[in-house]
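Two records follow; treat each independently.
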Amino acid sequence: MEVRTARGASLHRETMEAQVSRPLRLVFLLLLCLFSALPRGCPFLLAADAAPTLVAGLPGFDGPLPFRLETGYVTVDEQNGSELFYYFIESEGDPRRDPVVVWLTGGDRCSVLSALLFEIGPLRLIGEPYNGTVPRLRYHPYAWTKVASVLFVDSPVGAGFSFSRDPRGYDVGEVSSSLQLKKFLTKWFTEHPDYLPNPFYIGGDSSGGKIVPFLAQKISEDIEAGMRPLINLKGYLVGNPATGESIDYGSRVPFLHGVGIISDQLYETITEHCQGEDYNNPKNVLCAQALYRFSQLWNEISHPHILYKRCVYASSGPGNGDTERKILKEETGVLKHQPPRPPMDCQTYGNYLSYFWANNNLTRKALGIKKGSKDEWVRCHERDLPYSLDIKSTIKYHRNMTLRGYRALVYSGDHDAVIPFLGTQSWVRSLNFPIVDEWRAWHLDGQSAGFTITYTNNLTFATVKNAGHTAPEFEPERCLAMFTRWVSHESL
C-alpha cells in the first residue's frame, strides 16, 4: 500500500523494524529464563504480543486501501491468555494532529467489525445477493476517519476475533472488561507513542455506552495519579447509550405513544397502574396486562428504527426481540452457525454478508488473525458466554467526568425505539447543569439535521434526525458533520 504521510512512513519503518527485532528479543528473553533463577518461570514470554499487521488490501475491495489500516492483538489477561483484537485506521486528514478515538460497540458481545463496516468506518459491504464468493467492499465517504484516527476494539474477550486460550478468560463482566480495556490502551499507547500527544476520546453506542464513561473515569484517575503513559484524554461520546437505569426502557412507553404506536388508553393505563414498577417484572395484574398488550404492539415495529422494515437479524444484537431471533433453515454449506438471511431490501442484509466476509480464509490472512484462535467469527453472541452486568448505573460517571472538565457528547437517533431519545434527554437533564445554549436546531446544507442543547461543564446533547439506534448507520452524512464539528470544538 502507498503510504501518504510522513508519519505513516515512519510508523511503517518502525513496524518493520519491530517485526525484525522481536524474534531476537524473544531469543534473548528465552536465554535469560534458562540461565537465571526466576521463581515463576517466564510469564512475560506468554504475555508477549505479536507485531501488528499492516493491511495493504482486503478481499472484496478493488485495489489498495485508500487509508492506513493496522490490525493486531493486545494481551489483557496473562494468566488466562486473553487477547483483544483491534483494527486501527489512521486519520485521512492530518494524523499528526487529529484526535484518536477508541470505539466500542454494543450488543451481546458484538464484534466491533459491525461499527467499522456499518457505522463509522471507511468501508461498506456492497448489498448484493451472496453468490458463494467473498462479498465485495466499497469505500465509504462519510467515515469518521476523515477527521480522526479510530481504534476499533473487539471487546469484551470473546467478541469478534478476540479470544482466550483458557475458557476461564471468557468469564468477565462490565467492570472487569472495562479494566481490561484500560490495560489494552496503556499497552497500545506504549507501543504507539507517536499518538500520545493527540487529543484522545472514548466513544461507543448502545450497551457500549455503559462502558465508555466508566472507562473514561478510570483513565482520568490514572492521569491524576501520574501513571505512564500519560494519555491525552479530552472527553468521550456516546450514542443512544444504555445507562443501566430503568429510564432506558421506561421511556419506550411515552415514545411509542408520541409516535402513534400505542393508544391514549393504553398509555394512560400503563402510567396509572405501573407507577414505579419494573416493566420487566410487573407486580399487579392490570400493569401486567397492559404491558403484555404493549409488547404485542412493540413487536409490530422495527426496534432500531421505527420507520424501517421489520427484519430478522443475522445474530443477536442491539434491540433484538425474541421474535427476531429466528434462524432461517437454509443450508449454506459454508458456516457451522448459519446466519439468517433477511430479504435484500432489509437494512440487516449487510449483517448476513459480514459472516461470509469475516470467515473467508483470505480475509483472515489479510487481517493477521491467529490460526486456531477462533473457530468461527460471529457478529454477536446470543448470551452463550458469561457476562456480568455489574455497572448498575453510569449516570454518576457522566456527572463525575463532566464536573472534572472533560468534554462529553451524548447523541440519539430520534427514531430509535430501543433506547429512545426521551430517556436519554431525561437523564442528561437530571444532572441539573445550567444551560449554555438553549434547545435549537442544528443544520446541514441549510436544513435541520437534528436538535441540540448545550450545558455547562462541556456537556452537549444532540438528536440526529431520521437516525435509529446506531445513528451513523442510518444517517452517516449527518453524523459525520455532528462529530466533525464537536471534535473540532465548533458549535453544532
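The next record belongs to a different protein.
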Amino acid sequence: MTRYASIWFPFLLSEHAIRKQPELREVPFVLASRKKGRMVIDASSKLATQKGIFSGMVLADCKALFPELEMLESEPGKNEKLLLALAEWCIRYTPFVATDFPDGLLLDTSGCTHLWGGESAYIETIKEKMKSFGYTVSIAIADTIGMAWGIARYSPQNIVPEKKQYEALKSLPANALRLNPIILSKLKKLGLKRIDSFIGMPRESLRRRFGPELPLRIGQALGQELELIVPIKPVEPYMERLYCLEPISTATGITIALEQLLQTLCTRLESEGLGLRKATFSAYRIDGDIQQIEIGTGHPSRNTVHLFKLFEHKIATLEPSLGFELFVLEAPTTEPVSEEQAVIWNALNQNDKKIAELIDRITARKNTNVISRFLATEHYWPERSVKEAEPLWEKATVEFRSDLPRPIHLLSKPEIVQVTAVLPDNPPLFFRYKGKIHTVSKSDGPERIEQEWWISDGLYRDYYCVEDTEGARYWLFRSGPYEKEQPQWFLHGFFA
C-alpha cells in the first residue's frame, strides 16, 4: 500500500531568518517585499502571528497597529531554495521526496517507516531533526497526498489508518482540500465550512455549482482520482540504502557499510544479468551535510572486490565530523553483461581480468583521460585512419593494416623537418628534427598516399621508413613532387 507524508513548515522563512540572526528569536518581526508600490508581508514570525499579523497584509497597516514590529526585506525565491535544500536532506528518510510550494514537502514513505520502528517513530524522528535545525513542522501520513496535506495543516492527529480517508476527511474544514480562494468564499457564503457538510452531495451537483476543482480535490483526497508528484531527484532503479543505528565516524565503519551495499547491489545486478558502469556512494551526515564519491568502469561489472578497490582510495575524502547516519549506493548507469563479457571474470581468463581491473583502477585514481585506446577506420589518409575509442571498450569494426609498415606512434599533426635528399624520388640522406641532425643508414619507400578526393583536395604524399645511425626509426614523407619550388618534408611517426 502506498503511503504519503506531508511536512508543513508554518514559519519557514521567519525561522530561517532566526537561524541566521538568533537575536530575532524574542522579537516580533515580518519579512516583506514591495508589490504594486507598497510593502506587503510575505512571512511573519511566530510572535508576530500571535499578534494577528499574517502574510498578505500591508506592512504600513500592521505598523500602525503594532509599532514595535520589526521588518526584514524578503529575498525573492528564498522559500523555493530552502525547500529544495530540505527536500534533498530528507532523501535520508525516503528516496522519493518532492517539494510542495510554498511551504511544504511530500514524501512517499512506502516501505521506509518500518526502518524507524513504524510511522509514529518515523514522524517523531523527522520532527526532532527539524526542531534541532530550528524549524517548526507539522507532519501527517495517509494513503493519499491530499489527505496527508489536509491532516498536516488542519488536524491534531498525524496518522490516518489505511483506507480510512473518508472518516478522517469529514471532520476537516473546507480549506483542507487545497481549493482556490474563490471556491472557499462561495462555500463560506453558503455555510459549508466543514467537508462533512457537502462531501455527501452528488459530484455532478458540486461540479455545476462550484466548477470541476471541488469534486477533483475530494476525489484526490479519497484516492479516487490520480495525483502525481515529481521527485526532486529521479529514483534510481538500482539503489541500496543502509541506515545506521548509531552515527558512523570511522573509516572502518564506512568501509563495512560500503562493502555491504556493494554485495547487496551486485547480487541484484547478477540476478538480472546486468553490470554497473557508474556508481555513486552517498553519505548523509547528521548535521545535514551530504557527501559523495563516484566511480566508473570500462566494462559492465558486478565484481564486488574490484568495485570496492575503485572506491577504496576515495573513502579518505569523506569527512564524517559527528558521524554519518545513512549510506546510499546508486548505479545510475548499467548495461547487460553478455556471456563474452562475463567470461572476463572467470579464472580461465586471468590476464584479461587483470588488464580490465588495472585500467579501471588507473582511471579511478586519476581521471578517464589518462588512458586512450585507438581503433582503425576505413581511410587511407593517415590522420583519418585511426580514431579514439569512445567508450574505452568500444568494439573494433575494422582491422589495422598489416600489409604495409605503420608507426606505433602517429603524430596527430605532422612536423616539418629539413631534409637532404637526391632528386627526384630518393629517400633522405640526412634530416634535422628539433635541432638534431639524423644520418639515415637504412630506408624503405616511397609509399605514395593520395588525398581522399571525396573529402578534401591537396598534394599527395611519398612516405619513407628510415632508420638513423643510432637505430631509431622514423616515418617521413615528402608533400608533392619536385617542381620549381622545393617540396616540404615532414615527420609523421615513430616506429618501435
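Discussion point: The chain has a mean pLDDT of 88. How would you locate this feature using only the C-alpha cell line?
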